[in-house]
Write a sequence for this structure.
């Protein structure tokens, strides 16, 4: 009688161990699948979707043009004439999308201002970039600044292309709210420590250019930021 009870208990224990092993195998398999998903997402970009629009034009249809050729000196008559009316400035045409030609990455863009620290604000999304609304738009003279995330809340940002594939000579197209495509060529890509970024990177004036910015490196929770900045400066392609 005792032998039968012992055998029954042993069989029950074996069944429990078997069920426990099955549960552990299932959990282990699930963790492996999750890890593989994360690696594929970050390394290949398969699971990242473009949020912006692709340009409808080609680099030949650029809106940045050269200064007009000088005309002949005006002639004057004896009769006084009314002064010409003051030109009405065109309203800003903000960017809505930036397209990295050759990488098939199109990122939506929204206007941003400054945060409580007085710094350029960011967009709380991994696949949307921010245009500094207090600086020039793409169709205006000066420095058009657009910043996006390298990573955000564990998701690979679309602006990670700045240090993963983008190179000098690449073409960038910024599409504006008015439907214009403005083309640029990447002139330089540099990395700076967060506290050693040159002043001209954020300077709104100066020669006409597009400045693209993202972060790099592990997030420092004490500082509430990453320690490195990647900056790509792009020059407009002009009509001949």
């Amino acid at each position: 009688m005792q032998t039968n009870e012992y055998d029954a208990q042993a069989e029950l224990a074996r069944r429990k161990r078997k069920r426990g092993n099955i549960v552990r195998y299932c959990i282990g398999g699930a963790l492996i699948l999750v890890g593989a998903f994360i690696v594929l997402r970050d390394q290949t970009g398969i699971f990242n979707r473009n949020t912006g629009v692709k340009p409808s034009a080609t680099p030949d249809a650029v809106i940045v043009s050269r200064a007009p050729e000088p005309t002949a000196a005006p002639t004057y008559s004896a009769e006084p004439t009314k002064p010409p009316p003051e030109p009405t400035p065109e309203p800003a045409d903000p960017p809505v999308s930036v397209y990295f030609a050759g990488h098939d990455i199109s990122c939506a863009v929204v206007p941003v201002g400054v945060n409580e620290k007085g710094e350029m604000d960011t967009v709380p999304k991994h696949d949307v970039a921010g245009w500094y609304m207090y600086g020039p738009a793409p169709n205006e003279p000066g420095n058009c600044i657009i910043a996006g995330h390298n990573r955000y809340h564990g998701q690979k940002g679309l602006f990670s292309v700045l240090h993963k594939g983008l190179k000098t000579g690449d073409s960038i197209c910024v599409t504006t709210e008015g439907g214009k495509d403005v083309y640029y060529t990447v002139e330089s890509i540099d990395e700076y420590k967060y506290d050693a970024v040159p002043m001209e990177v954020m300077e709104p004036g100066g020669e006409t250019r597009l400045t693209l910015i993202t972060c790099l490196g592990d997030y420092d929770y004490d500082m509430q930021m990453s320690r490195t900045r990647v900056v790509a400066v792009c020059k407009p392609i002009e009509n001949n």
Summary: Residues 2-44 form the longest helix (43 residues).
